[in-house]
Amino acid sequence: MRTDAVVLGIAFGYLALLFVIAAWGDRRAEQGRSVIGSPTIYALSIAVYCTAWTFYGSVGRAAEGGPSFLLIYLGPTLAMLASPFIIRKMVRIARAQRITSIADFLSARYGKSVGLGALVALIALIGITPYIALQLKAITLSHAVLMNYPDVPELRMAEENFWADKSFWVALVLAVFIILFGTRHLDASERHEGMVAAIAFESLIKLIAFLSVGVFTVFVLFRGPGELLATAQQSNDLTRLLSLEAVPGGAVGWVGTLAMAFLAFLTLPRQFQILVVENVDEHHLKRASWLFPLYLLAINLFVIPVALAGLLIGDAGSDPDSFVLTLPLSAGLEGLPLLVFIGGLSAATSMVIVETIAMSTMVSNQLIMPLLLRSRRFHPGSRKDLSGWLLGIRRIAIILILLLGYLYHALVGDAYSLVTIGLVSFAAAAQFAPALLFGLYWRGATRLGAIIGLIAGFLVWCHTLLIPGFAQSGWLDDGFLATGLFGWEWLRPYALFGLEGWDIYSHSLLWSLLANAGSLIVISLFTRQTRLEQTQAALFTEALHSSLVYRSLWQGQTTHGELRTLLGRYLGTSATRRVLAVSANDHDDDQPVAPETIARAEQALSGALGSASARVLIHSVVRGEALDLEAVLSILDTTSQTLEYNRRLEQKSQELARIGEELRSANERLRELDRLKDEFVAMVSHELRTPLTSIRAFAEILRDSPDLPNDKREHFLDVVVWESQRLSRLIEEILDLARLESGRLTLNPQPLDLVTLTRQSVDAVQQVQQDRGVTLTVDLQVDTAPVIGDPDRLEQVIINLLDNAAKFADEQTPHVRLALARHKDRFRLSVEDNGNGVDPADRERVFEKFHQLQPQRTGHGQSRGRPRGSGLGLPISRGIVAHLGGRLWIEEAATLGGACLVMELPERSA
Amino acid sequence: MKPARHKERLIALIGLAVLLFSPPLILVFDRYRPDGISALPIYLFLAWGAVILLMAWLMERPTHDESCEDDAR
Fold first, then answer.
1. pLDDT digits (tens, 9 = 90+) for A443-494
2. A4-430 topology per CATH
3. Across the interface, do A289 and B59 touch by the CB < 8 Å criterion?
4. In 3D, which of A498, A493, A514, A503 has the Cα closest to residue A253?
5. Rounded to 5 degrees, what are φ and ψ at A756?
6. CATH number of A747-906
7. CB–CB of A78 and B21 under 8 A?
8. Which residues 226-255 of A are in CB contact (within 8 Å) with B?
């Protein structure tokens, strides 16, 4: 069944199917029913990342480098995780500026520089052509394996005639495909819907093919993964393969490859094409950011099993790169090898298609167009129609690039294994990363910095990877690998500056990126940007912030006639009509053109020719600076400044609101205090007046009635004395309070024994309490209680506490209990009563001065008509205790059930 | 507050992924060899799958819709 005719029939039949799908996709797009307007299709098309290098090479790499093959896919996973930040920004910029390729992107960022665009295109051409060659090689190789099995295929391409090489014909068919579906529009920034649909389809095919081989290997050749692992376990070489030991460069190589894959995923021209240029809707990124990593995971799931199985079963001579084919072949299957071959073909062709489109756009827009614009024939002044020419240039570029790839494949392809070429290309693409990432996030990166950085990185890459590669294929004398360039040891390509022990890719990546990013930063810090550069830098770095419409800022002048001629020459008549349609109500060629129209015209030209050429062309007809750069810059600055101000304003207003709230509550508190003060004054006056009144009354009686009986007279005098005492006590309290408040209370602290002091105080009040009928229990649990305090003041406090308790104890059977106990290194004196207690919410208020004066809050003693005492005792007591380093608080009485006032004083240290 | 949280979660996830795929952890799992076979490949696939799951959860929740539109840089 595996005859040449059948295999070729299937292969070219498959290619024909691609044509059908692409044509269908384009047809649907024309009808306005796009097939690629779905995030899933977008994610599948990103899988163009998985080339033949993945399809065949992953197994080969796993067979030699162990788990390191996974890094090539973990890097892009990281990049996709970061896509809401990085790729979304790129997509938005590309949409706004009609970017056509990564070269165009970098050129636009650094002031629409022609030189930078050309440099990027050139580096890409040198770095990526081997990669295209790799795909063609994979096709040839897989075909040879398929046809010659079980013989080892002889691969001497140079000796074979190219017309007998299938990959030559495949390349030719692909050229036709790309010309048909990749250059339908002149505008390269427009989507190639048919092509994307075909790519998504190819991604599905390669996934299915690889999974089929995997399932076949694990479940048919072996009875499940367990048996495969058990078999592999018996071989030391195979178990080693699963560990980090097999990874080239060990842990350093691991990180290096991961970083390289991350950067290359963002900068490979084909990835840029699919991710950014062909993106229909930036919201598709959301789905793709996890679906594409999932695709990568799926296609890698069976790589290790296939590699293990290939090493176990396959004859030792077989190339690990073709295990995917030889495993089903060795089992004598007919259909599966064909499916695998188609899978490999789909992986290779999808890559070649997208890469070639991206490269041809770059080459024609960044390399050829700027040159042509300088020649007389294409000079903007002449009047020939050039739109056909432009498409022609791009088509020739496609054919040339494919031819170059084929030549490379035919001439040097043998020397490299699949993986090697791939990683060399990755390292080349990674050189664009500093210019790209710094350009996206650092406004100060300048054109000169980017150019020098790129050149430096590229040179290091040539020295450490490309040229040694040539030398190893026998093209050059490989002596310099060991002795270094010019015989200088420190210039050895694989051990630059004596850095040894790294794998060659991490080594090259480190030095080239160091040179690249280092030059970019240093030179940027010491060069100036032109105004156009500044504007573009601002537009790029602020892309996610400002939805700036800067069209109205165009100020150059030109006429309809001139603009129409220019566009007509480069874009063709129908496109010109589209661009000018909106404003061309009057067809007077001498009418000045509205600024928006000029902006639209430059964008249309950008989409077709790249931003640098478009700028040159627009300036050939527009007098004066087309874009008011100063204005754009100032607006961009204003926008970011406004954002900043807004943020600050918001902070300020929040702060103000908070302060206002604080002020309001402080004000309320003050009012409350004011009210209390008024009440206090009223109450104090009342309190003062009551004894005064009675003193006066009794004094008057004594004065007016000389004939009072003696015992009555004495009683009246007693009352006068007693009321005077009450009066002076009250005044004393008020003075104490005033001193406490102003901090002028003078205490006389000295060592004393609290037990003795308590006894004294109890003795002092006992008589009075007994007279009132209060039962006083004293419970001193310690013999001595050394503290520091003012004896007079402390006694005052204790008496006050006892007095207070007596007042609030139960009316019928008043009972007060005093206890003194040690609590850790402090002494607690508690005074309980059997009254109503104090509501927990009010406990702190009891210590507020004047509190007593608020009858509704006292809770005690109202039944006796009026609050007793001035209400100043407790605040004063607390103030005194606090001055002595202790605390005074109120809690639930443990034994008597009423309120319990606790005074706590620290023990005097010996 | 939601947009900022979404952005922070994304950044945290990126950090987590970098951590999971880099040497210190890689070395730990490489040295863990139950049957003489390194657990590294299994670990990588599991960690990878977990990261993808988390990303899918973050991106597909309907609530965040336009959340990271204009503040992510």
1. 888 999 999 999 999 999 988 888 887 777 666 666 666 676 666 666 777 7
2. Sodium/glucose cotransporter (1.20.1730)
3. yes
4. A503
5. -60, -45
6. 3.30.565.10
7. yes
8. 229, 232-233, 239, 242-244, 251, 254-255
